[in-house]
Amino acid sequence: MKKLLAIAFLGLSLFSSITPAAQDRPDYHFTPHSGWINDPNGLIESGGVYHLFYQFYDGGWALKDGRFKSSTEWGPMHWGHATSTDLVHWHQMPIALYPDKKIGTSEVQGMIFSGSVVLDRDNTSGLGSKQRPPMVAVYTEADTFGPGSGQRQAIAYSVDNGTVWKKYAGNPVLPYNNTETFRDPQVFWFGAANKWVMVISCGDRVCFYNSPDLKHWAEVGDFGKAEVGVGVPWECPDLFPLQVTHDGKTETKWVLVVSVQHGAPTGSFGTRYFVGDFDGKTFKNSALPSDVKWLDYGSDYYAGRTWTPSRSDLKHRIALGWMANWSYAKTLPTTRYRGSMTVPRELSLQYDGSGYYLAQRPVPSVQKRLNSHKIDVRIDDSHKSQSITTGTVAQINVDFKITPGSNKLEFELFKTGQQQVSIAYDVTKSEISVDRRNYAGYRFKTDDSPQSAHVVPQNGHLTIQALLDRNSVELFVNDGRVTFTNLIYPEDTLTQTSVISATGSRLPVSPAQKSSALAP
């Protein structure tokens, strides 16, 4: 019989002190007050303020047949807007960008799809002044969506630090290219060439454009045709530099992140990345095309972007993703809103001898927020099993010591009866897996097979940081070498759990005590 070292985590899913309207809303993850959201857009930090724009719709726009979308359905896209000074507490601002309507009708024209925001410090665009440099949003306009549609790129600007936005009268700055996938521009200043660079989705690859002024663009290259392997079309590209130190030397590499609609570890939607070199026109992958790197191995991290910092920081980059999956995003069991973001994550570039990889961890402000809900657990020769009780909001840090004879390590989240989210580590295969199929609170129609990733213990230990927040679990394994992001929707109040001991017998645990959720 295989030796099992196990730990069970119990999460109380519902409390009498939580109102029904709050049961489906996460505590420390961003959600809109109401309405639908998906991709994060225009992430920029300016003057100590983090700006989050996002795909947003809150109802009230007519479709061609005269019907109106309800407020929690995907509809004619706007850009919502929120600001924060700590990436935890958010102030929701007025809608930044609205789609247009055809003159004399209520039909939508020019839906505001994804894009980015830059601070034009030297007023290269002429849309502000050197005294009041403009923020410039570069985004995709789409009249229709689907086969046969076309998409174009446009800009808007603000001279009051992002509160009021005006569309550029000369739009579009890049016209239709007669393809369905020509969208999600990310723009940044490339100092070495003294030009703006745009990286944009072109279906089975990304395309690069250069501009002196954000208005006039010229295509200069592309990347991806030889790298496809899995996952097309590509969406929501992000390109940024990071420093990495290895063998006593520090070098700067470029990281290209793309979201893909097929072929991810869970079977469909996911986010992959490349590490290489970029000269303003050409990206060269440092790895072989067969070396596919995934930013997250769960089902619910997509369309992620990173914040453009106000000052140069080549050691870290803060990322944010949409915590959902198009396979079931439109049917999630929420009420006033639909869609949420992951926790902001600090990215760093590492090298382990076999190649480069991104390590991720929750930003310090998130960990500080959870300090009073933090539980540390150690499993080793003297502690072969443990049981803990926690509320729906928690940070759990697990340290598994791999001992001789250990074959498999297991623990369970949100366990009640035969329902649980199971996490297991197979020592012989160096493989961690996550399985939410036995959880009946909400049946995910697709992307619900067990998830797995290869993870090698560090100095004989496997560490897992688990962030629980009412309807989600985010796992950071071995200092963020591997991450899993998954939505979880509890069905009933969880009252008890059990522990699998080292010999495989089950030990009963007393009913859990109620625990207060973290205050908003």
In short:
With 520 residues, the protein is mostly beta strands. It folds into 2 domains: 35-362, 5 Propeller (Tachylectin-2, Chain A), CATH 2.115.10; 372-502, Sandwich (Jelly Rolls), CATH 2.60.120.
Main beta-sheet strand count, sense and barrel state = 6 strands, mixed
Give the full name of the CATH homologous superfamily of the largest domain: Glycosyl hydrolase domain, family 43
CATH class of the largest domain reads Mainly Beta
CATH topology of the largest domain: Tachylectin-2, Chain A
Per CATH, the architecture of the largest domain is 5 Propeller
Question: Major sheet: order of its strands?
Answer: 27-1-29-30-31-32
Radius of gyration over C-alpha positions, nearest whole angstrom = 23 Å
Total strands: the figure is 37
Note the topology.
Blueprint: E1 3-11, E2 35-46, E3 49-57, E4 78-84, E5 91-92, E6 100-101, E7 108-109, E8 111-119, E9 135-142, E10 151-158, E11 166-167, E12 183-190, E13 195-201, E14 206-211, E15 218-223, E16 234-246, E17 249-260, E18 270-278, E19 283-285, E20 293-294, E21 302-306, E22 317-322, E23 337-338, E24 345-351, E25 356-362, H1 364-369, E26 374-379, E27 385-390, E28 393-401, E29 406-416, E30 419-426, E31 431-435, E32 451-454, E33 461-469, E34 472-477, E35 482-487, E36 498-500, E37 506-508
Parallel strand pairs: 1-27, 1-29, 2-23, 26-28
Antiparallel strand pairs: 2-3, 3-4, 4-5, 6-7, 8-9, 9-10, 10-11, 12-13, 13-14, 14-15, 16-17, 17-18, 18-19, 18-20, 21-22, 22-24, 24-25, 28-33, 29-30, 30-31, 31-32, 33-34, 34-35, 36-37
